[in-house]
Each structure stands twice: as C-alpha cells, then as structure tokens.
Fold this protein.
Amino acid sequence: VRDSLVEEFRSTYGKSRQWGLRDLLGHVVAFCQDQHGSRFIQQRLEVCSDVDKQLIFDEIIPAAQSLMTDVFGNY
C-alpha cells in the first residue's frame, strides 16, 4: 500500500502542484521508497539549503538500515 502523499505527488508533480522538500516532512521514508519520490529527493538535495538537508536527514536516520537495502531508498 502506497502512502497517500506519495500518491498525491505522483498525480500532481509537474502538473497542478509545485513541490518542495518541506512538503514531504512526515512522509520522507515513503518517498525514499518510491521511484519518483526518491528521484525527486535526490534532485532537490543537490540545490536545497543546509536546513532542509538536515530536516530530511533527521527523518531518514531512524529508517536508515531498511533504506540501505531498498531498491530506491538506497540512493
């Protein structure tokens, strides 16, 4: 079962809604495990502020072990 925010992202990204990393807070791990969500995070991390990087990092640290072996989350 896919996270509801991931579903919304997949249906609106590049169409009817602008997305930022802060929009993902509380759902970052689910986005990491989704092909499109993971790619989005990777692209945004290249250009975001250190504060935003820390927010993302803080959310993924508890799930780091499982993300390391996830097909998309390992990125």
